[in-house]
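quick q for whoever's on today - can somebody do inverse folding on this one?? i tried earlier but teh output was garbage lol. tokens:
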């Protein structure tokens, strides 16, 4: 009899898989990667596209309905469009989204759209070119904006702009980002700065909570809550008075959402990870390469799902650091 996956032990419905397709990137954001001396994974350790497609197909049979591709920078991986075309053919997958730094977005936006992907997240932590350069170590501010404008022109909806808020660094731009949603249909998502990676630049002093960001934005006008759908991530969403777009808050540290978390992660080197803040991972690549049965691989999904923390004890009182690099997990 075929193995029947059973996720009853975990009361959260796991329907959202974030896949890091590469640990490489064309930026060097200070909170994510060191500017030099990075040991990228050998190519043979990274899941091939065929392997990702296989695992995704299996994941769909366990209840996954939405996939987000991330990295590193997903658009730097060779033949990404051919891969997206195949991914889009997987039956039962209702939504494919992509998180990108936007540097190559202008070049790829039309092809991405043609693969049936309409929703996109672009990371952009400053509206000032010199500060963007300071954060990312690359002078690509204009390129990213060209990418965002191209996505808008092509009708991507929504275009989400991820902003990692860092106290004393870009928190003076919170209101400017919020005001962007008045004239533009963008969804600005403020993400709390998280202590991720061995040499993280995170400190308590650099941390600003989404609660504080919310309070700042409220000085601009009323914030009306927006209802989330079952495939949505953990953002608390609002519309600013008179706004065309939305504002979202991801309080990964201050507003623990373990009880609502519907995500699973697949790292670039093929490990299932139930939580960004738990370094418990399950290697699915090795058994896949050894030719283990689908039922065996299903069980690994179940195990990973059971490994998800059920409560936020990991983050208190000092946030636990996630040792693995963000670029290999995918955020
Ligand atoms: N390269 C793509 C990008 O930057 O959008 C995708 C990968 S990146 C790891 C995914 C998301 O994680 C980005 O929005 C990035 O800003 C966020 N991120 C990276 N390091 C972070 C940290 N230490 N705290 C909070 N967010 C972080
Ligand atoms: Fe690259 Fe994204 Fe990490 Fe920045 S946050 S270094 S763009 S992977």
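ok took a stab at it. sequence:
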């Amino acid at each position: 009899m075929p193995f029947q996956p059973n996720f009853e032990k975990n009361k959260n419905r796991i329907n959202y898989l974030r896949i890091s397709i590469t640990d490489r990137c064309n930026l060097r954001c200070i909170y994510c990667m060191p500017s030099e001396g990075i040991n990228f994974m050998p190519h043979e350790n990274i899941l091939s596209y065929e392997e990702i497609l296989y695992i995704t197909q299996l994941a769909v049979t366990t209840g996954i309905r939405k996939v987000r591709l991330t990295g590193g920078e997903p658009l730097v991986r060779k033949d990404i469009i051919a891969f997206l075309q195949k991914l889009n053919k997987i039956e039962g997958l209702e939504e494919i989204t992509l998180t990108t730094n936007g540097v190559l977005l202008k070049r790829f936006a039309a092809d991405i759209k043609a693969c049936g992907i309409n929703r996109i997240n672009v990371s952009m932590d400053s509206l000032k070119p010199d500060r963007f350069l300071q954060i990312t170590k690359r002078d690509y501010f204009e390129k990213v904006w060209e990418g965002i404008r191209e996505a808008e022109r092509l009708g991507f909806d929504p275009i989400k702009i991820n902003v990692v808020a860092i106290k004393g660094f870009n928190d003076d731009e919170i209101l400017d980002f919020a005001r962007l949603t008045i004239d533009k249909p963008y969804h600005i998502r403020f993400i709390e700065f998280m202590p991720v990676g061995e040499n993280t630049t995170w400190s308590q002093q650099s941390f600003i909570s989404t609660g504080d960001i919310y309070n700042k934005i409220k000085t601009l006008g009323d914030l009306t809550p927006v209802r989330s759908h079952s495939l949505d991530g953990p953002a608390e969403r609002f519309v600013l008075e008179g706004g065309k777009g939305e504002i979202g808050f991801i309080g990964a540290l201050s507003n623990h959402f373990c009880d609502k978390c519907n995500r699973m992660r697949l790292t670039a080197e093929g490990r299932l990870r139930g939580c960004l803040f738990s370094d418990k991972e399950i290697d699915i690549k090795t058994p896949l390469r050894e030719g283990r049965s689908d039922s065996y691989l299903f069980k690994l999904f179940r195990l990973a799902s059971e490994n998800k923390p059920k409560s936020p004890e990991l983050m208190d009182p000092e946030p636990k650091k996630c040792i693995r690099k963000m670029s290999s997990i995918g955020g």
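fwiw Residues 16-329 form a domain with the TIM Barrel fold (CATH 3.20.20.70). also The chain has a mean pLDDT of 89. so keep that in mind when u check it
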